[in-house]
Design goal:
three-stranded antiparallel beta sheet, alpha+beta, 3 strands, 58 residues, single chain, Arc Repressor Mutant, subunit A
Length: 58
């Protein structure tokens, strides 16, 4: 899971704006929406991302 979390954060950094979890999940072959959602929530809890409604941004 740490490798997956490290892969998710750069997607948010390059996005240029807030993304839905499903938009992040589309960028990965391995991704299941529930897993990506958990990873995004983990980044939020660590202060490495924040929520903007239903979207996530760094």
């Amino acid at each position: 899971m740490p490798k997956q979390a490290k892969a998710v954060r750069p997607v948010l950094q390059r996005a240029g704006g807030p993304l839905l979890a499903k938009e992040v999940a589309r960028r990965f072959k391995w991704a299941k929406l529930a897993v990506v959602g958990e990873l995004l929530e983990t980044l939020v809890s660590l202060g490495q991302a924040r929520r903007d409604g239903e979207r996530f941004v760094v």
